[in-house]
Amino acid sequence: MQEPSPPSLLEREGRETIAYRAMAGSAPGVMFCGGFMSDMTGTKARALEAHCRRTGRAFVRFDYSGHGASGGAFRDGTIGAWRDDAMAVLDRVASGPQVLVGSSMGGWIVLLLALARPERVAGLVGVAAAPDFTEDLIWSTLDDAGRRTLAETGEIVMPCDYGDDPYPITMGLIEEGRDHLLLGGPIALRCPIHLLQGMRDEDVPWRTALRIAEKVESEHVVVELIKDGDHRLSRDEDLARLTAAVDEIARADAASNHGEHGGQR
Length: 265
What we know:
With 265 residues, the protein is an alpha/beta fold. It has helices at 43-55, 79-92, 105-116, 133-138, 144-153, 171-177, 207-215, 236-257, and strands spanning 8-12, 15-23, 26-33, 57-62, 98-103, 121-127, 155-158, 167-170, 193-198, 221-226.
C-alpha cells in the first residue's frame, strides 16, 4: 500500500538522515523498531499505527540507516549504528514514556534502548525478538569456508528467504555486534515485557524467547508461543495478539503511574 505522503526526516550532523512517521496522541506512546532489512512500511508497523490511531495513542515508526527511505548504505550498518538511529528517534521524535515494540532484530534494538533509557520505557513487546543474532544465528552457523571468506574479503552474500534480493553480511556487522551481545548474562531490565514467538519460525528459534525471559531481571514477563506461527507473525490473529500485548502494557503503565513512567520500577 502506498504511503499517503512523504515521511518526515530527522537530520543529524555527521550522520545519516533518518526517515520517520509520527502521530500525536495519549501516553504512553508506541514506538516500532523493525527487523533486519525491513522498513517502516511493513504489515506490523502499519497495523500498529492504525490501531493507535483508533485508540488515540501516540505512535512512531522509522527506518534505520541503510533501510527504506533513510540515508546511508545497508552494508555500512552495524547493531550499534542502528541502535543509535533508534535512540535518536526516541530522544528527538517520541515524547514521554514509550511501549517499545521490536520485530526480529528490532527485538534486540529495543532491549538495548531500554538499557540505555530505562526512564523512557513503559514496557517492551518483542515479536520473534532476535538479540545476539549476528553471533548465534549467522557466525555460529557458518562453515569454515564461509568464515574464511568473510574474514578475508570482509563480506559474504546470504540468500533471502522472503523473495527479496540476496543481502550482504559484513565482518564489521559481526565484530561490532559482539559489543552488544546480551544473552550471555543477566539483562538489567525490570520493566514489563511481552514476547510473541512463533514455533514454526525458521529464522529465530522459539527457545530464544525463553532465553530472554530467563535473562531479564523483570518478574513481569509473558512469553506467548504460537504453535503454528512463523517468523513474520503478520496474520490477522497475530496482529490481534500484538495490539493486545501493547494495550495491556500501556494500560498497566497508565494505571500504576498516573501519567508518569517507570521503566525500572
